[in-house]
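Hello,

Following up on my earlier ticket. Below are the two sequence lines again, exactly as submitted.
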Amino acid sequence: MPFLISGRIRRPHPTTTKQMKILILGAGNLLLSDEGFGVHFIRHLEKNYKLPGNVELFDAGTMGIMVTHKIEEADRVYIIDVINADGKPGTCLRYSKEDFMLKQIPVKMSPHQIGIQEMLLVSEMRGHCPKQLYLLGVIPESTGPGNELSSVLQKSLVHLAKDLVNELGGTAL
Amino acid sequence: MATRTITLDPITRIEGHLRIDAEVNGDKVTNAWSSAQMWRGLEIILKGKEPQDAWIFAQRICGVCTTVHAIASIRSVENALKAPVPLNANYIRNIIIAQHAVQDHIVHFYHLSALDWVDVLSALKADPNKTAQIAQSISDWPGNSPTEFKAVQEKLKSFAAGGKLGIFSSGYWGHPAMKLPPEVNLMAVAHYLKALDYQRKAAQAVAVLGGKNPHIQNLCVGGVATAINMDNLATLNMERLSLMRTLMEETRDFVKQVYYPDLVAIAAAYKEWFSYGAGVTNYLAVPEFPEDTTSTKFSLPGGFITQGDLEKTRFIKNHSDDYLVSNIQESVAHAWYEGNSALHPWQGETKAVYSDFKADGKYSWCKAPRFANQPVQVGPLAQMLICYAHGDVRVKKLVDEANAKIGISMKDHHSTMGRHLARGIRACLMADYSLEQLDKLTANIASGDQTYANRIEIPNGQFKGVGFHEAARGTLSHWIVFKDKKIENYQAVVPSTWNASPRDEKGAMGPYEASLVGNPVADAEKPLEVVRTIHSFDPCIACAVHAVDPEGREITKVKVL
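Thanks for your patience. The regenerated structure is below:
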């Protein structure tokens, strides 16, 4: 089950070692307002925080299968994205690997639709899928054309960024 | 048997991408509609922005074709200002283009379309030793050992034993149209998993030049921002270039020794697919790989073929050829935009009016581009046919060899499998071009040329330009109009718009639609054959919403009425 991030709700606190390669992967389409959440998130971290040396920030845009290697190379991955879930726009949910791995590969018509979940399945078959995998998802308000986030999601972004930076032992710039 | 309509609607979380409606009569498709279910909006966002920044936004249109939109966009501004591009910059761009194409074709073949032909479950029954024999008989690839195939099969078996076989349940495995022997299936599945390593090498090679792949950072109007300094460790130097060369050689070997032989083996086993899926046989490709500073000389030709007649190909000299620039129009008669007219992209409008799907009215977000008033197919097949007609030595050799090996002739290329074959041939070509352009770059630098960009100030006044690019999926063009340093109009006519086009004001079908007519369908509940033909175009629709659905809800829906 996912954990709500807003409010004081228990959630796993994974321990980190310095050797561990940690990847924060922001996914999204910058041209469709809230769809670009993951990319805005990465830019926000780059601008405002200093993270430990073993943490890499990656703007994956809308690439699915073409960024598999980034995920396979890491020991722990946080995927930041908008999600299709019931709830109020701006709600952040945290899923761990078992929660969001697909049980089957759906038939796709275009490479865009080979999404992150299918990609993880293929990685799993290759034996390269990292064990520590988290999806930090936010429910979007608007996905119409536009290159800025809605104000609701902008607030969620700031909150979610602080939260993740704390978890990883980063500091504000 | 009664007429039935199949709706293939891959539903994504927010909006769908490509919806195909096919009318099936007996065991054949008799009519079809292609509908893009999502709206791009780029044109609206770019209005009022500065022309030199357009490429940064443009490469976000699409998650797969990032670099190609960046290239077309920057070329549109350079074309408007008649800005020369230094040789080094063109070589660097050419390497990025060619290597990106290699990556794209590998991913398309294995990860998007191979499973239309390859039955994963059947691979469980294969004999790994026999698989190795078959693989070694068609290729010298060192990875084709019995141990490798055994390991992959064990992996598959462990998935099956762990109850994870359900992963494969929503594909079309076990479908009567699947007919490869278990050993060939195992070989293909093994290479499907391996292919990810090589698409990654291609991505790494692009990243050496372009900065952070997938979104290249190194373009600027008038050149590239990548300075190469052979001695300085901090910049792009000899060591980085030789790393890039190694990566590109490894990818080339994979393309030639794995992808291409696999493709030929699959094509030969499904030879009847050279007789389905021709559809529109008017083809367009633009010249690619500029080899001088004024974009007049190109490595590969462009041209226009009418009704599949290679003899009468009208060749296109360069990107300013008036025949090319003036003959493109987009019709919105059947698209969800205001009006019913066809407009040239410089005059193009993007005024959305959404209504429901109306088969005899408006039914797609995709406009209908037309060349000389005709529907046109673009993509590797178009480019390879035009190269063949032009007498390109390498393309001729590859095509003639493939014809002999599979037992087909030139007319068979106008087909579903013909498009796959052309893409494989193009992948071989692009792998070679990547390395050749690198040779030219190093030779040019060695000769003392240190220019990477011509600094250009955007002047006041009104300008219009077009950036053409022969991309992995075909002819791409970005059309820009700017006045006093601000964009007034921007239109992108992308390859999938040509191919996924709805009908035009005269009722002429687009290439996807026409290609489905006559296509067999063994089981209307599982329209694998429809998927095969559409996938052969390498669709990339409406660029791009991606989806994460944590609940794992059904994403693709087949509805049979």
